[in-house]
Every structure is written in C-alpha cells, then in structure tokens.
Amino acid sequence: MKNGCLSGLFSFVFLITQSFCLGQDRESHGRFLVREYLKSDTEAERETILKKLNALPATFDEVKEWLKLSDEYPPQQPGLHREFAPVGERKGEYFISVPSSYTPDRSWPMIIALHGVGGNGYEMAMKWLKSTTHYNEFIIAAPTYGSGLWWKEEPEKLVLSVLDKVKRSYRIDTNRIYLTGFSSGGHGVWYFGIRYPWLFAAINPIAGECPLPSFLVNLKNVPVFIVHGLKDTVIPVEAGRDAGSRLERLHYNVLCQELPELKHQFPAEAAGKVLEWFRMNKRMPYPKEIRFSTESLKYSFAYWIEITEFSELIGQVLGVYKDISGKLIRPEGASETAKIEGVVQKKDNEIFLTTHGIKALRLYLEDGFVDMESPLRVYINGKLVSFEKVEKDIRGMLDAARKRNDREALCSAYVDIKIPLD
Fold this sequence. Notes:
This protein is of the alpha/beta class and 422 residues long. It folds into three domains: 2-68; 79-280, Alpha/Beta hydrolase fold, catalytic domain (Rossmann fold); 289-418, no CATH class. 32% of the residues lie in helices and 28% in strands. The chain is built from nine helices and 21 strands. It has an eight-stranded mixed sheet, sandwiched between helices. Strands 9-16-17-19-20 form a five-stranded mixed sheet, with no helix packed on it. Strand 13 and strand 14 form a beta hairpin. Helix 1 (2-39) packs across helix 9 (394-404). The radius of gyration is 25 Å and the shape is globular.
C-alpha cells in the first residue's frame, strides 16, 4: 500500500514536471515565432508565422506578453564606439557611448545628440561626456552628417536609422528617449520634435532656430528646454525667444535658459541642468489629448492617430510663408496643412476629434487607454461613429510593433474611420 502511494506520487510529480517543461518549450517557441514575425520582410512569411501561432494555440494575451519579451540583445562593450547605420544603399556614421554598468537585464534611457555645421558625431558625443559626471546612466548616440543640415531627406533617414538600430542592439526604454542638438543641430531638434513628436520624452534645442514654426502645435506632449546665449551673433537669441513664446502662448511645457556670457558655443555649464531635466520627463505613449498638423502623408502619425487620406487641397501651395522677421523665405508659397485635435474621455469611453483637411484616419487603441470590452463612441466634428466592441487583433498588434519597433507603445487593435461628411 505504501509503495503504491509512492508510485502514484512519483507519477504525479513526473506529470507536473513534464507539463512545466512543455509550458516552457511552448513559451520559448512562441517568443521565437514573434521574433521572426517582427524581422520578416515578406507578407507570405508573416502569414505562415501567424498560422503557427494559431496552431500552438496562442491567446492574444500570451502573444502580447511574448511580444514584450521577444527581443534578444547581444553583449555590448562599454565606452565610446564608432558604428554605422544603413541609409538606403549607403551607410551612415554615428558614435555611441555605452555606460560602464550597461546590462540588457534592464532598460536604459537614451540621448540622441546632433552636431552643428562643420561638426561630427564624435565631437558632439564628447561634449556631453566631458561636460558632466552624470552621463554614465544614459546611452548617447551622436550621428555624423557632413553639412549638419538635419532637416533634409538623407540626414533625416540617417537619424531614424540610427535610432532604429540602437533600439534593436540595446535594451532602450522607449519612454525615455531624449533629443538634443547644437546650432544647426538645434534646428534639427526642432525639426524632428515637430515631425516625430511621439518618439521623444523631451527635446533640448541649443542655439537653434525652429525651421517650421507653424508646426510647433505638434509639441503638446513633448516638453522643451531651450538654451541660448545672449551674446550669440550667429543665431541670435531672438530665434529661441520666438519659439519659446509661441509654445508659452499654446500653454505647453517649455523652459527657456538664456546664458548672459555665452556666444555661439556649446554650453558645457548648462549640460548638468539639462540632464536633470531629462530625468524628470517621461514619454506618454497614449496621451489623452493630441494636437497635430501636417502637410504630407510622410508625417501622418502621432501617438494613437494616423491620417490615412487627405482632402484634395492638402499639400498644395497656398499663400506665402514668412520667417519670424516677416521676410519671405519661400516665395513659391506654403502648403495647405491638415489638422487634427483629439481628446479621450476614458470614464465614458469616448473620443472627441476635430479635423481639417482629412478624409480618413486610423485610431490605435490599447487596454487602459480605452475600455476594449465596452462600446466605444467616437465623435468627429460633432458627428458620432459608434463601435459596439473593438476586437483585439494579434496581427494588428504585431504589425504595429514591427512598424514602430517600440515595446512601450503596443496597440491591441485599430479602427479605420472615414470622416463623416457635413
């Protein structure tokens, strides 16, 4: 009798152990499939992977958890390194500073630093490394672009490629990515912040001028710290003051520091304060309020809204565009822009949108942002579009993660909406 009990006990333990091992294998296989989906370049491959996930079978919540844990990061050496990122058929240079205590066991904040005309990524990285003793907690990436005109197409691709490569190679906290730049690099900070506000927790233009002041409205959820020297004769302090005052009139989060003795040079004495300010700010992947303006489908995404179709006039040249002094800087005129404002009322599961120049859009939805199990009401220019229930979608979640390379901004589903006619 005693031996029979022992035999039964051993059988029970074996079954439990076997089930645990099978569970482990299933999870490992699921994470592998998710990883392969994110790396896949063809629709056919992704379709095959989805079938394999369904055959496990895998629930939505399981796939979401595997997605969060799917990345595998290679070992990295601390210190300052020269690296290259793909830019079309070419490769672009950047320098990356890795903290001495770096480990992929936790996520790390990141700073992207843009140099000015005549500079390079190495010099820009060294300015930050020499200016403060607190750099060891940040990964710093500083790309090199010859002319330093960061708002052109090629350097724009370079910066985005560097960001994407670093996120794939290091465990980056995508809610703590900061952007800084000096001189024309400061112009670049304004440009990237305005065009890609959803990427950054905060931005820091130094001795820069905003090249697109009419789009400053896009920085509603991006804190800005402007640093400028009062004795700067290359880019006068009025450039920083103008952008700062525009943001203040919008009631946005902006901090301005004017250094009385500083000419057109990197402000080493202010770097520590900037880093302290970075630490205080964290990105909200799903802010409850959005304001966004654009004239191109190339820049059509912001947080949880994507414009998928413009009205006919958007992008056409209408009127003229003037700089802050009133001079015409684009005699051919300025493009008509699309505009959208969005507010989420979570307790009522309602989204209110006001649009101009938009025919269709996509809303990305996530648990906690809205109640996925309850009816969703979307009011667009006062007209109601209702959804009884928004079904969670594994494919949509994986496709969005693949496109964004951002595990902190996952979406459980999306809905496509045609703007109701007046």
